[in-house]
Specification:
The chain is α/β, with parallel strands linked by helices and 242 residues long. The protein is built from 8 helices and 11 strands.
Length: 242
């Protein structure tokens, strides 16, 4: 299909179900995206690392190499937005994907309209991050936010606690950084979906925030049920106290 509304963005779809891949290809091209299809994890990984894509749609259940493995290898070298596609409602797949560095997930069957909106939001947000990295200076001299024993190095995207580095996924880091930049402010799940994921209203799944926050707390807090850093106000949201 000819791409008559080319927006200059290129998407890689790694999906072994031909019918789904074809539907995605048609709709992506109608929306103005260039699109490459890969039907297995090995081919998908090769394309992902060499194709200079603006976003990757990555199925979990793939022949030759599963989506988790592809995501892990891509994240070692690239920050390209990744939306994982799962056929399961179980949180374990979502937790694993987000922990490996995926930006979001969608569950089959999904609304193509909502998926296209999420793709647009992720690409727009990633482009904004690149512009911010190249154009702006850190707000403080050393680019470090300190909250008691927690140190967030905004130049090198590293987090340490008591001198020991904490391994965070891309989204866990972004959530922590956003809360740290707004100490004392209560952030609802909707706020975080808008500010961290770049989604508006119905586009985001609130469970995405819950899963990411649970993983973040398990890494930052000594005892997550008795937090020192990230607190919850029941039904209201999350905050880091002053």
């Amino acid at each position: 299909m000819e791409n008559i509304n080319d927006n200059g963005k290129k998407i890689l779809v790694i999906e072994d179900e031909q019918s789904i891949a074809k539907v995605l290809e048609i709709n992506l091209k109608m929306a103005g995206y260039a699109c490459d299809l890969c039907a297995d994890g090995e081919d998908g990984l090769s394309h992902a690392l060499t194709g200079n894509y603006d976003l990757i749609l990555l199925d979990i259940m793939l022949p030759k190499r599963d989506g988790f493995s592809v995501c892990r290898e891509v994240r070692k070298k690239l920050n390209t937005p990744i939306i994982m596609v799962t056929a399961k409602e179980d949180d374990i797949d979502k937790i694993m994907g987000l922990d490996l560095g995926a930006d979001d997930y969608v569950t089959k069957p999904f609304s193509v309209k909502v998926l296209l909106a999420r793709i647009k939001s992720n690409i727009r947000r990633f482009s904004g991050e690149l512009a911010k990295m190249s154009d702006s200076e850190p707000e403080n001299d050393v680019g470090v936010i300190k909250i008691r024993e927690l140190m967030i190095d905004t130049k090198n995207y590293k987090v340490t606690k008591g001198g020991a580095e904490i391994e965070l996924s891309k989204k866990e880091y972004e959530v922590l950084l956003y809360l740290a930049e707004h100490v004392g402010e209560l952030m609802s799940r909707e706020d975080l979906l808008t500010k961290v994921w770049g989604y508006d209203g119905f586009l985001g799944d609130l469970r995405t925030v819950d899963v990411t926050m649970s993983r973040l707390r398990s890494k930052v807090e000594e005892t997550p049920s008795e937090p020192e850093y990230i607190f919850t106000k029941r039904t209201k949201g999350y905050y880091i106290p002053e």
